[in-house]
Amino acid sequence: MKYELISDWQTELARSITDLSELLSRLQLSSDELPQLDTGKSHFSLRVTESYLQRIQPENPQDPLLLQILPTQQENLILPGYSQDPVGDLDASNIPGIIHKYTGRVLIIATGACGIHCRYCFRRHYPYQEFQFTPSRWSAMLDYIASRETVHEVILSGGDPFSLSDQRLFRILDDLDGLPNIKRVRFHTRMPVILPARVTPELVTYLAESRIQFVVVIHSNHAQELNDEVGKVLKVMSSADITLLNQSVLLKGINDDVSSLIHLSEQLIKYSVLPYYLHQLDPVQGAHHFQVEDKRAKELIKKLSSSLSGYLVPRLVKEIATKPAKVLLK
Ligand SMILES: *Cc1c(COP(=O)(O)O)cnc(C)c1O
Ligand code: SF4
Prior knowledge:
alpha/beta, nine-stranded mixed β-sheet, 9 strands, globular, binds pyridoxal-5'-phosphate, binds iron/sulfur cluster
């Protein structure tokens, strides 16, 4: 059987793989080879796009892309120190849908939808249903942003803001364009990586022509995610004067070795993306098995610094709920 990529991104998104047995058969893996597999119904279901699936190496139970999406029984362990809201998002929600923790920028939960379910996600328990993005809430959010003159940047997050249709996204951006205090909009999205077809010519044209300056932070954790198809849309965005940054999560067994991190930085810069942050995992319930100790994380960064140009070394950070910025680990 031949699997074609679908050029219409919304169709491809709707056809994401959510069935575990389909995933295993596509990758020619049996459950015997994956003893930790969770075959039960999780509230955080399996989800992966066709495009991403095609980058997973078949017959390899340790593939670093597979490990990011495969539900395992370790996720069901409840451990002390691992909570449902590890970074205090809910406390920092001054009004529903806005998280205002840091000076100068506010974060908006624009949608709860994602094209992929990353097992390590720190918002895997976020009560998106309680914070539906309704017109009246949006108008309250706009008032909030408009009345804070020191806020110059709006961060669209989620979920994945690029899972919104162009039409809905452009409405949000048009409204932000109407606020004179807003100079920049930053997207935190995994779409260019997991569903490159999402970066439509209409989207790029909109971003290129706006008064607002745009920054797109792609969330790639491994060089194997960045194939030529992804590279092509990244190049299109950078030639449209969109600033491209990458943020990764340090993940045990996936990218917690010097060579993986070097390859990732090299692959990013090939496509004009600068490494920005390497995040220590937020202690979210269900993801403890991805945690790398701080001591080891710092050693990795030291080794990276001794082999790469300075601008290719991401900042190792940790989020601590009460601090005024992400905390740099050195
Ligand atoms: C991480 C984060 C930001 C962005 O922080 P930068 O250091 O500017 O990248 C903004 N708001 C919230 C709530 C965040 O969690
Ligand atoms: S919010 Fe980001 S990390 Fe979480 S599941 Fe969606 S794409 Fe993955």
